[in-house]
Design brief:
Tetracycline Repressor, domain 2; 11 helices
């Protein structure tokens, strides 16, 4: 899975080959195809890996207040322009999403991931209602709106180089959405820059989890969680970090 991630970030989907992945592991291309029928099967398993890892990171934030969990969710999408490891993850995901209209396996995995993402945000919003931190609203509609806004800003930043979209959407969301969403006395840290988060939080990013350069992997970097595990490695996901993941 680590080799797949690195190769996908470097080459993109179109130019990616099984040999590119094998070159980043201690396995041969023939061994990869012993476990996977095609590159597409391997990448479908990779998506599953990402989403399972995302679940793990979400679980690590559940002791935070709903407002703080919402801030973490925003940080995951609207990261700073210098957040290269996080951007690489989103580029990799964008690469796979562009294939979904033509690939049923990708489409199924990505639909599952979308359901998962919305469920996480809806849970945060419902918990905020129960805790009295959010004013009355429809969690499903609010989650759909926020994800569409954040996702749109991120895609435009990645595809046309408009870094300002991220900050503009962050500011507008805080001004026009969270101002109404937050209950009296609650506040959202709208000016928080993800690059200033404590180092302990940054260590949970996907690059660190996968043991890539510059990260402090949470597992053994020599383990067998590359594309050669018939079960897809030790499972998956985004994404990312304590402060990233949500």
């Amino acid at each position: 899975m680590r080799g797949t991630y690195e190769a996908l970030c470097e080459h993109g989907y179109t130019e990616l080959t099984a040999q590119d992945i094998a070159d980043r592991t201690d396995k041969s291309k023939s061994l990869l195809f012993y476990h996977y029928d095609s590159k597409e099967d391997l990448l479908a398993d990779f998506l599953e890996f990402l989403f399972e890892r995302f679940d793990e990171r979400v679980a690590e934030t559940r002791d935070l207040s709903p407002v703080e969990r919402l801030a973490v969710f925003v940080d995951w999408f609207l990261y700073g322009p210098e957040e290269n490891d996080r951007q690489s993850f989103h580029v990799a995901m964008l690469e796979l999403r562009t294939q979904a209209p033509y690939n049923e396996a990708f489409r199924e995995k990505l639909r599952k991931g979308d359901d998962q993402l919305r469920a996480v945000l809806e849970e945060i919003l419902r918990d905020g209602l129960a805790a009295g931190e959010f004013s009355e609203h429809d969690p499903e509609e609010t989650a759909a709106l926020l994800i569409a806004a954040f996702d749109g800003a991120r895609i435009r930043q990645l595809t046309i180089g408009r870094d300002e979209y991220l900050e503009q959407v962050r500011t507008a969301t805080a001004t026009w959405v969270f101002d109404d969403l937050l209950a009296e006395g609650a506040s959202f840290p709208a000016d928080r820059d993800p690059s200033t988060l404590p180092e302990t939080d940054q260590q949970h990013r996907l690059a660190a989890d996968l043991g890539t350069e510059g990260g402090n992997g949470t597992g053994d970097p020599d383990d067998e969680t590359n594309g050669a595990d018939a079960d897809g490695g030790d499972a998956a996901g985004d994404e990312p970090t304590e402060r990233d993941r949500e």
